[in-house]
């Protein structure tokens, strides 16, 4: 999960009201029903399908396309034309399939209790296994073609040159591709392999029930995922403590189930790594994007060497808050609470459009169109999917899910997700379908660059010491969350995968103990953990995508370097960055970023981010500690 110059200082005053078109909150602190929210704040999924019947019509079309895939089996080496036609048919079917897939999931995320869309997502998930099985022969057959014959086929059919990089990606993994029959079997278990993440999602989004919290006024407030972090920002320590206890207790009732679900996901990772003849789960995960293992290890060891600045930050929080013991529920309360910023969604859109001026008028015009054309689903509602994300297919414009709640963090999250959306938009616009996606390794650079530019825009316009301290504190928290915390999570992932590789069991207790040890190392002696603090490791959805989160940290480092150059008016960097957004997957991620001016095979960007964090802590301390 972005130009008109106007006075930014109004957002530091008493706070900004919600736009009039937004429905009033539901009674008794509850969550709105979707029907209470104005249409302008909802995404327009009718741009994909106008009805479930239209969706089902395309479902029939995709099913009808699958038999033709089989007609290419055992023929791919016969001519370049045959291979091209196979790729072309596969891509055409894929475009339609993912259009179906996205619509079903986006509709379900409007209300996860809706049985019609639960059934549709189950149906398309089942079809995905059939889809994968139908094309499972393609990669093994291509692997069997020798290099000279493949070059001859390209000469015979110049259209096949479109797939040069695609073929290179496939063939570099030759040692990890199985026989056609074995690939077919793996395709058949695809739906089963998604089980752990699907179970986690249903527990997390549909089954978890939170209790009430007594707020500062003594009134009962219904806990939700979106309200949780707002409550943790309360100046009242009792409210913070109670909020964390109420929130975590909901997960505590599912500890053993969530532990089994996560451990099963890790065993699944090991199954695929071993089946495809990788030495480790890490090697298997990184090879998908051709990321050198040293890049990952370099990140972890470099950050490990700088955890002392986190310890210093913990000590600063303890001192400023005036607490005898620093607890996890003390980590979100603003150190300058009286300067807390509230921003309505409409104002957030305006600030983002102003703050991303270094990206140029064309980017800003496209971004403005996105905000005004039904790309974003803005507000939380009963049963809606939690968090925020951007999702798109080649057949449609991107969509962004938000649960906007008038906070500064929400504004930065919106900028982040629109960065993803614009990246997808430009990749689709400038690349053919086969290269229109982008790896996770590069995706987070596009989103985080937006956040960096917006942060500097805000900092440049503060008028008081309190405002500056508030934004510096927020900036520090962003680096903690996006950089240090993700490396902490990465170390946890590495340890639990290493455990199963060594034949050790993974119970909920083992998972919690492993997480607790790493958590304490990162935050140091000033942080006193609660008995339940380690339950956090059981509620992170990203752990169901092995070795995903380290890329937030590498991307943050890359974005920091890019934003710094953009803010200096570096036109060469702006051109290179826009080209990066347009590149999709036409090259390997490391190479794409190198062309954008950042080399993540070296530690420069990682070191620079750690030093930036240290400088920000120093600056904040100078403002707050006399």
Explain how this protein is built.
The chain is mainly alpha-helical and 626 residues long. It has a domain at 49-193: Oligopeptidase f, N-terminal domain (Butyryl-CoA Dehydrogenase, subunit A, domain 3, Up-down Bundle), CATH 1.20.140.70. The protein is built from 25 helices and five strands. The chain has helices at residues 52-70, 80-110, 115-134, 138-143, 147-156, 164-172, 180-188, 190-193, 195-207, 225-231, 237-252, 255-275, 281-287, 293-304, 307-321, 345-355, 361-372, 408-430, 440-459, 465-501, 508-523, 550-567, 571-582, 589-595, 604-624; strands at residues 212-214, 220-222, 376-379, 389-391, 399-404. The protein has a three-stranded mixed sheet, covered by helices on one side. Strands 1-2 form a two-stranded antiparallel ribbon. A hairpin with a 7-residue loop joins strand 4 and strand 5 (399-404). Helix 19 crosses helix 22. The longest helix has 37 residues, at 465-501. The two termini are 38 Å apart. Mean pLDDT is 92; it is low at 1-28.
């Amino acid at each position: 999960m972005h130009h008109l110059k106007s006075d930014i200082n109004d957002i530091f005053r008493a706070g900004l009201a919600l736009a009039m078109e937004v429905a009033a909150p539901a009674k008794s602190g509850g969550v709105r029903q979707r029907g209470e929210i104005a249409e302008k704040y909802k995404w327009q999924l009718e741009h994909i399908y106008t009805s479930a019947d239209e969706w089902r019509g395309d479902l029939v079309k995709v099913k009808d396309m699958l038999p033709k895939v089989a007609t290419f089996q055992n023929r791919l080496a016969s001519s370049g034309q045959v291979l091209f036609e196979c790729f072309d048919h596969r891509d055409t079917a894929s475009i339609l399939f993912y259009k179906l897939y996205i619509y079903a999931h986006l509709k379900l995320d409007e209300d996860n209790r809706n049985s019609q869309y639960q059934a549709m997502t189950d149906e398309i998930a089942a079809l995905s296994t059939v889809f994968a099985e139908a094309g499972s022969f393609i990669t093994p057959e291509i692997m069997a073609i020798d290099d000279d014959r493949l070059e001859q086929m390209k000469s015979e059919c110049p259209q096949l040159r479109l797939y040069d990089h695609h073929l290179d990606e496939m063939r570099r993994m030759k040692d990890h591709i199985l026989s056609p029959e074995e690939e077919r079997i793996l395709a058949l278990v695809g739906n089963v392999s998604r089980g752990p993440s699907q179970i986690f999602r249903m527990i997390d989004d549909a089954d978890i029930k939170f209790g009430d919290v007594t707020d500062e006024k003594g009134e009962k407030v219904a806990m939700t995922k979106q309200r949780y972090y707002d409550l943790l920002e309360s100046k009242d320590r009792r409210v913070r403590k109670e909020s964390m206890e109420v929130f975590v207790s909901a997960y505590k009732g599912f500890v053993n189930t969530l532990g089994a679900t996560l451990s099963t996901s890790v065993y699944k990772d090991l199954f695929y790594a071993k089946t495809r003849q990788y030495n480790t789960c890490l090697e298997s995960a990184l090879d998908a994007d051709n990321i050198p293992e040293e890049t990952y290890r370099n990140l972890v060891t470099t950050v490990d060497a700088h955890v002392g600045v986190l310890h210093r930050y913990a000590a600063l929080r303890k001192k400023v808050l005036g607490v005898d013991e620093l607890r996890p529920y003390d980590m979100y309360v603003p150190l300058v609470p009286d300067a807390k910023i509230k921003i309505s969604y409409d104002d957030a859109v305006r600030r983002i459009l102003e703050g991303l001026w270094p990206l140029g008028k064309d980017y800003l015009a496209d971004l403005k169109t996105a905000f005004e054309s039904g790309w974003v689903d803005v507000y939380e509602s009963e049963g809606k999917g939690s968090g925020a994300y951007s999702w798109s297919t080649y057949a449609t414009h991107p969509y962004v899910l938000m649960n906007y709640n008038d906070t500064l963090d929400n504004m930065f999250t919106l900028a982040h997700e629109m960065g993803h959306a614009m990246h997808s938009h430009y990749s689709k616009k400038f690349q053919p379908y086969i290269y229109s996606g982008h790896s996770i390794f590069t995706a987070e650079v596009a989103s985080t660059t937006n956040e960096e530019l917006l942060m500097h825009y805000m900092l440049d316009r503060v008028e008081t010491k309190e405002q500056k301290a508030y934004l510096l504190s927020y900036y520090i928290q962003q680096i903690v969350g996006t950089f240090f915390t993700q490396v902490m999570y990465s170390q946890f992932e590495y340890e639990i995968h290493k455990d199963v590789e060594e034949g050790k069991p993974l119970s909920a207790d083992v998972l919690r103990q492993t997480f607790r040890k790493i958590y304490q190392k990162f935050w140091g002696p000033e942080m006193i953990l609660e008995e339940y603090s380690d339950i956090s490791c059981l509620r992170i959805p990203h752990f169901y995508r092995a070795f995903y989160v380290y890329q937030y940290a590498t991307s943050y480092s890359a974005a920091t370097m890019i934003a710094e150059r953009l803010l200096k008016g570096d036109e060469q960097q702006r051109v290179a960055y826009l080209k990066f957004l347009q590149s999709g997957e036409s090259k390997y991620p490391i190479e794409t970023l190198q062309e954008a001016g950042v080399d993540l095979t070296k530690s420069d960007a990682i070191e620079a981010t750690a030093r930036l964090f240290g400088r920000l802590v120093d600056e904040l301390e100078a403002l707050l500690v006399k």
